[in-house]
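Case study 2.
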Amino acid sequence: MVDSTAEELAIACAHVGDERKGENIIVLNVGDVSSLTDYFVIITGRNPRHLRALRKAMEEKIDELEGRMMGIEGEPDAGWVLVDAEWIVVHLFSSDKRELYDLEMLWGDCPRIDWSARQPLQSGSGE
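Prediction:
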């Protein structure tokens, strides 16, 4: 990645979700309890078209910051998409699927990152 940490990449993805009108954005540090990833970014989209746009924006940001894309699971028409970027996983949900899976409750003991108070990493910023 472009001199970035997993946390910085998660924060950048949260900002992208916000710019693209994603709702109820949460960043969780799951690294102490998960061997699969360090951060979850959870975002609600309004409809399948919005989920597709969010997925594309996440892929572009991860690529821009030279993150390692591991894969994408799920379908916008099914109400959920998971974007796996190795050390972060972005969960994109419709509101009903987010309520069904309730990741905030399942991972409720994990620290939340106040992403909105931090500036997102930009490509080539060297920070």
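The radius of gyration is 13 Å.
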